[in-house]
Amino acid sequence: MSLPAEPMSTPGAGSVRPHVTVILPTYNEAGNIEDLIIAIRHALKAWDLELIVVDDNSPDETWRIAEIRSKTTPELRVIRRIGERGLTSAIQRGIRESRGSIICWLDCDFSQPPELLPALVSAVESRCDIAVGSRYVQGGSDSRTGTRLRIWLSSVITTLSSMLLVRDFRDHTSGFIAARRSVFEQISLRGDYGEYFIDLIFRAHRRGFRIVEIPYVCVPRRSGESKTESGMISKGMKYLGTVARLRWEALRGAC
Ligand SMILES: Nc1nc2c(ncn2[C@@H]2O[C@H](COP(=O)(O)OP(=O)(O)O)[C@@H](O)[C@H]2O)c(=O)[nH]1
Ligand SMILES: [Mg+2]
Q1: Angle (nearest 5°) at CA 94 between 88 and 99
Q2: Is this prediction's pTM over 0.70?
Q3: Could you tell me the distance, in angstroms and rounded to a whole number, from the CA of residue 199 to the centre of ligand 1?
Q4: Fewer CB atoms < 10 Å away: N or C end of the chain?
Q5: Run of H or E residues at 126
Q6: Which chain residues have CB less than 5 Å from ligand 2, an ion?
Q7: Phi, psi at 182, each rounded to 5°
Q8: Given the DSSP bridges, would you call strands 76-80 and 49-55 parallel, antiparallel or unpaired?
C-alpha cells in the first residue's frame, strides 16, 4: 500500500504538513457533525490539524453541513462519496487522502468523547505506535443501553478476540484510535463494518507495533440512530468470522 512517506513533525513547528489528521466517517450524522468539528478543533488546538469528513451521500445531508462549515474552516476537507457505502472503505479513503503524521478516527455521534483525542495523540507521540480508546480497561465503561442481543454479542466477540487473538488487549471493536502513519504504510483496512478493527489490531500486533489502551466512558449517541443496530445478527456473524479467519491465518503463518 503506498502512502506518501511522512517524517514525524512536531506540533506547531510550522510544518508544511499537518501533524494530526482526524478522519470523520459519517452516515446520517447531521445532528452531530457541526458540534463535533468544533469540539475536535478545540480539543486539538495545540496541534497542527487536518480534518477529513468522509460522508456516503447521507440522505440527511450531513455532507452539506460539513461543506458549509469547510468554507470557514481551512483545515477541514469534505469527501462526499456517491454510489459507495461502507464504514471500512470510508475510513480507508480518509487514510489515503490524509497528510498527517498521526492519523485518528472516531464515531461521529459523541459516544466517543473528542476530549480523549489529546491523550491518544500524546501517547502515540511518546510511548506507542497505536493508542486505542478502550471501554474495557480499568476506568473505562460502556454506559449505552443497547438491546440484550447487542450486549451479549459484543461480550462474546470481545472475550473470543482476547482469548484467540491478542491476549493482553481488551477493546477489539473500539473504533476510537490514534496511530502513526507508518502503521498504515504496512496495513490497509479490511472488512465492511466494525470487524475491520479486530483485523487491524491483530495484524498490527503481529507486526510488532506497540499498542496501548486508554480508558474512556462510552455514552449514548447525542443525535440520530445507530447503524449497528440494523442487521445486527449479520454484522455479529462477520465479526465472529473475522476472529476465526485471523486465528486460521495465524496458524497457517499467513498474516
Ligand atoms: N461514511 C460512512 N460512515 C458510516 C457508515 N456506517 C456508519 N458510519 C459512521 O460510522 C460511525 C459508527 O456508526 P454508529 O452508527 O455510531 O455505530 P455504533 O456506534 O456501533 O452504534 C458513525 O460515525 C457513523 O456515522 C457508512 O456506511 N459510511
Ligand atoms: Mg456510535
Answers
A1: 145
A2: yes
A3: 18
A4: N
A5: helix 117-126
A6: 107, 109, 111
A7: -60, -25
A8: parallel
C-alpha cell at 72: 470557514
The closest ligand to the CA of 53 turns out to be 1
Which atom of ligand 1 is least distant from the CA of 194?
Answer: 20
Site of grid cell 501517547: 123
**Smallest CA separation from ligand 1 atom 20, residue:** 228
Atom of ligand 1 nearest to the CA of 193: 6
Distance CA 187, CA 164 (A): 20
pLDDT-derived band at 229, boundaries 50, 70, 90 = confident
Pick the CATH number of 20-251 from 3.90.550.10, 3.10.580.10, 3.90.1150.10, 3.40.50.970: 3.90.550.10
Q: 254 pLDDT band (50/70/90 cuts)?
A: confident
Please tell me the number of the ligand nearest to residue 111's CA: 2
Q: Which residues pair with 55 in a beta bridge?
A: 26, 80
Q: Which atom of ligand 1 is nearest to the CA of 226?
A: 15
Residue with cell 477493546: 171
Calculate how far, in angstroms, residue 41's C-alpha sits from the geometric centre of ligand 1.
21
